[in-house]
Write a structure and sequence with these properties.
GO terms for molecular function: transferase activity. Helix 1 packs across helix 2. The chain has 213 residues and is of the alpha/beta class. Helix content is 35%, strand content 19%. A five-stranded parallel beta sheet has the order 2-1-6-7-8, sandwiched between helices. The protein has a three-stranded antiparallel beta sheet with strand order 3-4-5.
Length: 213
């Protein structure tokens, strides 16, 4: 199976998430590509829609190696910091060693929130069932950080929903999310886009329009 586009992927996920309809969930899309998928899921579940803003914190001199992640708080200042302690220990680093990088990530996320929400406040997640949605997963590092951030914001239950992800990554993600919904889990995944007929890039304007509905 391939997806026609992100709307089709959202419909497939929404059908598999029907069991959440009575739980008044919050659906969070990972910008930017995950938001059109999340919007369809939210509509099918008659749920609130928002974004989850997460930034990876790279190691000094090796930015692609993540030593943690930072997630947007609910009031503009109460940030959630997720530290990859084994990686920090391996590199003989402390969290204070990456303080400048953390500050830059927070500034970027603040700017991203302003651009996408137009100054609006994020939804409260405390005590809620939260569905984290992306348009696909390659390594899983970003969605893993998102799940941990959502837990840090007080979510009672976290469901991860993605249209496609490698089977090995799905297995790993089941250890951190309460449930993982992934209709396509191939053994090998070269790129997420190969599983879509239309994988057009999503811009900020489209995300803003979806969030304003």
């Amino acid at each position: 199976m391939h997806y026609t586009d992100r709307v089709h992927a959202g419909r497939v996920l929404g059908a598999r998430l029907e069991y959440l309809r009575g739980e008044d969930p919050v659906v969070l899309g990972l910008p930017r590509g995950g938001v059109p998928v999340a919007a369809v899921v939210a509509a099918l579940l008659t749920a609130e829609l928002d974004v989850v803003l997460v930034g990876k914190v790279g190691a000094p001199g090796t930015a692609e190696l993540a030593v943690g992640a930072v997630g947007e708080g609910r009031h503009g200042s109460d940030w959630v910091e997720v530290r990859a302690e084994p990686v920090l220990a391996l590199l003989e680093l402390s969290w204070s060693d990456v303080a400048d990088t953390v500050a830059r990530v927070k500034a970027d996320l603040t700017d991203q929130s302003r651009r996408l929400r137009g100054g609006g406040e994020p939804h409260s997640l405390r005590g809620r069932t939260v569905v984290v949605v992306d348009d696909g997963v390659a390594t899983g590092s970003t969605v893993e950080a998102a799940v941990r951030v959502v837990r840090g914001l007080g979510a009672e239950r976290v469901v991860l929903a993605v249209p496609v992800a490698p089977a090995s990554v799905v297995d790993r993600l089941t250890e951190i999310a309460d449930d993982v919904v992934c209709p396509l889990a191939p053994d090998d995944l070269n790129s997420v886009g190969q599983w879509y007929e239309d994988f057009t890039q999503v811009d900020d304007a489209e995300v803003r329009e979806l969030l304003s509905r």
